[in-house]
Amino acid sequence: MTLKKTLELVRGFRKDDNSTPLVLMGYYNPIYIYGVDKFLVDAKTAGVDGLIIVDLPPEEDTELCIPAMKAGLNFIRLATPTTDDKRLPAVLANTSGFVYYVSITGITGAATPDVSQVIAAVRRIKRYTDLPVAVGFGVRTAEQAAAIAAGADGVVVGSALVNALKASLGPNDKATAKTATAVVSLVAELARGVRSARAGTQREQV
To answer: Fewest Cβ atoms nearer than 10 Å: which of 76, 83, 165, 184?
Structure first.
């Protein structure tokens, strides 16, 4: 896979859908090699809405964050369980779109988040920003998604979808007739969990 191919996928998606937000998540090196100015122009033209670049801290905002925001792209920053109150304002300073809260320490998909701790962390972050807070890492089931959605603005799922896709592949890791259904079914299940939590929250507010 290349960054050029990724932008081609975005352009293809935009032919049929011009409203669903698209956020690219990755590392700075491919963008640096591509050329920051060229990338920002091409990404905006392709239909990208925002970027999550996990290895650029706030101290490096002039590298990509500020230019991206000037180009009309949201720059979404990650906060983690180790982001304390002293560090948080710096993390949020030039963040736009939403805040991505990493619910666990470690690698994605390797552990299950503690929902009570996640909700407490989201409340703490919201003391410093009006941006929506989406929670990711370790979410695999509709029940987990629902529990987190009760206290957050969004739920991010990645590894569970990769695992569902992987389990559906045939010989030589080729897609089968089950692949699309496996992924779509999991997305639908997770979405139902999130929506059930939203409905419950709205009833409580009423």
So the answer is: 184
Cα R_g (the chain), whole angstroms: 18
Q: Which two tokens stand for residue 159?
A: 């590894």
- Per-domain boundaries in the chain: 3-198
pTM assigned to the model: 0.87
Burial label, 191 (beta-carbon count in 10 A; 0-12, 13-18, 19+): middle
Q: Provide the 3-class DSSP secondary structure of residue 107.
A: coil
Looking at the DSSP bridge assignments, the partners of residue 52 are 25
Which distant-in-sequence residues (6+ apart) come within 8 Å of 58 by Cβ?
Answer: 65, 77, 90, 91, 93, 94
| Burial grade of 125 (CB within 10 A; 0-12, 13-18, 19 or more) | buried
Distance in angstroms (rounded) separating the CA atoms of residues 100 and 155: 9
Q: What is the pLDDT along the chain (206 residues), one digit of tens a residue?
A: 899 999 999 999 999 999 999 999 999 999 999 999 999 999 999 999 999 999 999 999 999 999 999 999 999 999 999 999 999 999 999 999 999 999 887 655 556 778 999 999 999 999 999 999 999 998 889 999 999 999 999 999 998 999 999 999 999 999 999 999 999 999 999 999 999 876 665 544 43
Which CATH homologous superfamily contains domain 3-198? Aldolase class I (3.20.20.70)
> What stretch of H or E contains 102?
strand 99-102
* Amino acid identity, position 66: I
